[in-house]
Amino acid sequence: MENKPLPTLVLQEADSLPQIKDYLKNVKEYIVSLHDQKCDALQVLNTYSDLMDQLLKELYRQAEVNFSKTGQKRKSACALVAQGGYGRRELCLSSDIDLLILYDGKADDFVKSLSMSVIQTLWDAGLEVGSATRTVKDCLSFMEEDLTVMTALFDARLLAGSQELNDDLSKGIQKYFKSEKNRKLFYQKKLKENQERKEKYGGSIFLLEPNLKESEGGLRDYHTLYWVARVEYGIKNVYMMQDSTFFSVGEFIQLMNAVRFLWRARNELHRLSGRKTDQLTVESQEAVAKALGYENGDFLAVEHFMRDYYEHASVIRQLTEKVFRRVQKNEAGLFSKTQPGVLDDPNLKIIDDQLTATFKNLFFDQPIYLMKIFEIAHRLNLKIDDNTQDYIEQAIDIIGDALIESQQAHALFKEILSRPVGLSRILFLMNDLGVLSAYLPEWKNLRFRVQHNLYHVYTVDVHSIFAVQEWGKSSKVFMKNPNKLCICWEKILFAKTYSLLRFCITISEKE
């Protein structure tokens, strides 16, 4: 594919709107060409943002020239600032242009003129624009009341005008978060907002028609963990997260690969629809999969695409949850702590209601704990702490025939399945950490597998776990007759070594 030249912009003073429209048309074509050449997704977003910067800087310059011709004197300092996604240089093809006109003192005629010479011009050129005109004091006041304003200001980036004003805003935000009270309030608000968003958008990553931005495991989760990292460690950009104690190198690579996938899918969705949209409808999934180069094979191209989507969304969801847990651990003064619990096992301990391995190589030295820890966590209704989850993932490869054929491991797995209350929670955790795929080799083929029709709302692995969960609920019918319950449970749930999960695997393979 022939490379298109990088668009350039020089505005004439009179009637510049046609030139702006022509520039934006060339910019969109250039960005699409980068996208079609499979350039790095973040590079595509950054390049579009940089080209938009050129336009905004030129409009600001033109506004200054035009105002100087009036003979008036400017009475207040002023700055044009990109914020939100534009501030992060994350513009997709149909993203909003989020701007802040920052000034000090009383807004003079130049500040007022910017709304017409910059904001209105962008609207007239066909762009979607979000804007606000505020002092630094106003910004700091509004952000205390509105979490959306706060997170937009996190990413404020000077385009033109007063560097001092922009620095004052940055210093004000930093000062605000030096307070433990303010940090705690922010974390609490974000946790609540996240929960409300998940409930609104389906409460699962495994939706038939996920929202690339707002669904669980979507871009908003990624932004949330980034904002939390900014508050906790004071990082200035996404790439600084790999230098903090938030993520290991492997986790950061996983995160950025997942984010690149979502950005590329979102840009393609914008291109195909010709507008801003984030919903991967059943109809759009096939078109996006084809455009991104997926082909039919053992599965349909769209099923390959959606399987990749769920896998990447799962990474983002897990890391977002891990970030919040690490913040609670790091900020000892902000969150209540509980005393260590008593556990009759020298290799495990309970701290803050979480099951913790006493040493890093536990699962290498004693592989049976790869099953035992889940049985204990399920029986005592405990979570497993982040470090221990990391140790489990690192040891997954040692699960081989010895453990699969182990009678002790079989007995522990059977014990897990025999307790219906909370069973889906522990199975989902085993699935997330890769233990089910390692212990049940056939399960690996089901993980993130999609059946592209309106009847399968979730991926095959999630459907299978839900089937086990529903069986657990149905067991309550037999509670009045313990003998009948025992007979039914033994004959149906444990008909084979891996019981209902084996049954789900067999049915799914036949389908």
Notes on the structure:
With 511 residues, this protein is α/β, with parallel strands linked by helices. It is 58% helix and 7% strand. The chain has 22 helices and seven strands. It has helices at 17-36, 41-68, 84-87, 109-124, 136-145, 147-154, 163-176, 180-200, 219-233, 249-273, 282-291, 301-330, 362-365, 369-379, 386-395, 401-404, 407-417, 423-432, 435-439, 460-474, 482-493, 499-510, and strands spanning 78-82, 97-103, 129-135, 157-161, 348-351, 354-357, 383-384. It has a four-stranded mixed beta sheet with strand order 3-2-1-4, with helices on both faces. It has a three-stranded mixed beta sheet with strand order 5-6-7. α10 packs across α11. The protein is globular and about 90 Å long. The model is unreliable at 484-491, 493-499 and 507-511 (pLDDT under 50).
Count of separate structural domains? 3
Strand content: 5-15%
Q: Give the strand tally.
A: 7
The quaternary organization reads as single chain
Low-confidence stretches: 484-491, 493-499, 507-511
General shape: globular
Judged by helices, strands and strand pairing, the structural class is alpha/beta
Total helices: the number is: 22
What's the layout of helices and strands?
Elements: H1 17-36, H2 41-68, E1 78-82, H3 84-87, E2 97-103, H4 109-124, E3 129-135, H5 136-145, H6 147-154, E4 157-161, H7 163-176, H8 180-200, H9 219-233, H10 249-273, H11 282-291, H12 301-330, E5 348-351, E6 354-357, H13 362-365, H14 369-379, E7 383-384, H15 386-395, H16 401-404, H17 407-417, H18 423-432, H19 435-439, H20 460-474, H21 482-493, H22 499-510
Parallel strand pairs: 2-3, 6-7
Antiparallel strand pairs: 1-2, 1-4, 5-6
Helix pairs in contact: 1-2, 2-4, 5-6, 5-7, 8-9, 9-12, 10-11, 10-12, 11-12, 14-17, 18-20, 20-22
